[in-house]
Amino acid sequence: MSKSRFDLEEIIDLEKWEKLQDSLSLVTKMAILTIDYKGVPVTKHSYCQPFCHGVRQDAHLSQYCQKCDARAGIEAVRQNKPYIYLCHFNIIDIAIPIIIDNQYLGAIMAGQLKLREPDAPMLEQIVSRPPNVESNRKFKELEEHYDALPVLSYDEVTKCVDLLLQLSTYIVEEAIHKHTTIDLYKKVLTSGTDVPASMETFHHESNRAVRNIQSIQQELSGALIDTKLKNGAQGFVSSNSVLQPAFDYIFAHKHESFSLKEMAKLCHISPSYFSRIFTKETGENFSVFIARLKIEWAKQLLETTDSPIHQVSDDLGFCDTGYFIKTFKKFENLTPAVYRNMYAESSAK
């Protein structure tokens, strides 16, 4: 395969990509690794499952893992689409090719899970491994980890794969667009000529790209917070159907700050009318209700995660950590740090 004129390590900020990769892994329950067109990893492994980690540490078994990765990448390129297959331990893995302008840049390797339903489509075991005493012994050592592998339905797997494919392709395309724009500006500056009219188009396109990426980040942020919260998926069913769009939005965008005007507009009513029926519905005015709700979410995050106080504040859309602590203390009569310590002590008893 000839070398692509693009290089993943040159066009993508790998440090930021790894953080996004970690987030995607948490949301999808899949282990994820990004490789270049040669098959060489360009990122660390996000949440490699203990079973697979143990297998890859074994000199004999790891060679079969490498064969799976290599052959799956080739098959994904050949089919020009994500390739879902079984590894040599019959674990679900996926190779998602990153192809831009018909050029293979690399792939996202994801998976390390099992299927829930017994009637899933027949999948190819891409590499077969003859049984031997040592392999069986190693499996027995790791059998507890094997049983603990994440279990998803085939439909859930395909939806996760579609998410990874669209997001990775979009980000790579925008990264290439950014580099192309920068190269054009450099050429204009070095040539001493006037900026061509087409550069104005690039400027608008770049702004659009930034907005779209921010939108993706916001949606992913909301999904992450829901994953962390014990009751994150629960909403609020209003007895007044007029208010329901506002409640749905609030519970789906926990990482945002909310204004009464915006929520009234969402419900297609005036702010004054929204305020009146909202207070009647909840027993509190809008600002107090939102503050109390966010503090309840904050308590869940403090109880169930090790996120720093400033991260909890950011996750729930507070303007700064100081304001978050002040609001928390107003409702709970103690600071978030003291609350976390008290909860940890009571749980340990």
UniProtKB/TrEMBL annotation:
GO molecular function, one term: sequence-specific DNA binding
InterPro entries linked: Homeodomain-like_sf (IPR009057), HTH_AraC (IPR018060), HTH_AraC-typ_CS (IPR018062), PocR_dom (IPR018771)
Location of the HTH araC/xylS-type domain: 244-342
UniProt xrefs under PANTHER family: ARAC-FAMILY TRANSCRIPTIONAL REGULATOR, HTH-TYPE TRANSCRIPTIONAL ACTIVATOR RHAS
Pfam families the UniProt entry points to: HTH_18 (PF12833), PocR (PF10114)
Keyword set, alphabetical order: DNA-binding, Transcription, Transcription regulation
Species per Swiss-Prot/TrEMBL record: Paenibacillus solani
Protein name: Chemotaxis protein CheY
